[in-house]
Amino acid sequence: DGSGALAPLPELDQSDGALQAALPAVIGAAAVKDYLEPANLLRRLVVTVDNIPRQKISADKRPVRGFGGTFRADGDELHATLDTRNYARYQPLVAVIRNLDVGALMKVYVRFYPLVQRAYQDLGYPHGYFNDRLVEAIDALLAAPQVTGPIELVRPNVMYEFADPALEARPAGQKLMIRMGTENAAVIKAKLTELRAALTATPH
Prior knowledge:
By secondary structure, this protein is mainly alpha-helical.
């Protein structure tokens, strides 16, 4: 109608269509189609943000589809290092994040915040605020160390782990930042810094 009035928010469990209609302004229509899970997107986003500072991120609840290609390690099960070719797997998604419009994202975030907060309370935080947890998650990612040189790996079970116990003990989000390589991580950190400034400047 040209007035700029927004439609009323749907219920949380019927919010996928409205959110998918709003997100192309933030990351582009192709990225929404190529990278985001189409179902239960808000709940997936909330649980993943909540898990970033923890030891595990639930793979089956991620809002983003799996990255192309398979994980590569150089060496054998007794002595391996992270193959730098892994970094290329993340580059298409990192490019989307580099071009993300933080101003447009904040408009969508503020609009959908009541549903985001509901999803967060449903996780078992009746008195918590998702915005606070999001800032904590961003701070955890920004604190990811920049690891130079070969990254040693071990494979005690099915999955490879960092051989350095100090790295392996870090939160899941930080380990992901290490796995994507310093150049990709720098792009993510720059955008997260911009987002953090917007989040902490905007009253909710």
